[in-house]
Amino acid sequence: MCRLLLGAVLLGHLGVCSAAQAPEMLSKPTEVRFDSVDYRHVVHWTPPGNSSSLQYYVQWKIYGDPDWLDVDGCQRIQKPQCDLSALTSDLREWYYARVHASSPPASKSAWTLSPRFSPRSDTKISSPVLRLNRTVQGIVVRVKPPRLLVRKMHNSLQYKIYLIHSSGEETVFDMDCCSKKLTLKDLKHKTKYCLQAQTLIPAHARSSARSAVKCVTTL
Predict the structure, then answer these.
(1) pTM
(2) pLDDT tens by residue, 3-25
């Protein structure tokens, strides 16, 4: 009887030691989300506390698919971001990403899931840059579109040019993707005009905010 009691005590002691030596679960990353501008889709997350030595693993999948896939180049990384542009380029699909943290050699966190992401509707479209020149004919307007948009959908881009008169009244002009310039004529001499531009992608029903205001005084 004494031997049985002693054995039970020893086993209990060993169990306590084993539990104490088990690796603790790491705190998981938070705020996993897609930040997308001009169809460049980068997943960002907020690291847990004391994160200087942590490594991160990123996976992705298409909405409706059962299997998660590793993101090449985003395994055992230390920066809290991962570019998924190449994997999430189909504008017809919806996507998820998830991230977990690891502290070598053994401890790791649970996965944190991103909200569902649509590259068609969730990307932010950048405003174009206006370049203005004065001539005796009027104001010559040139538009420099965002570089990424030019590469991805050059033929789909259109622009609206807003001419703001000193009275506050606006006149709106349309430019297509291939127009090199727009000359605004029949303006008052030695008068200040301000302009803004906006990027449009009609095929996706998307548009940017207006660009910064630029003003010029006619000759």
Answers:
(1) 0.81
(2) 443 344 434 444 444 444 555 67
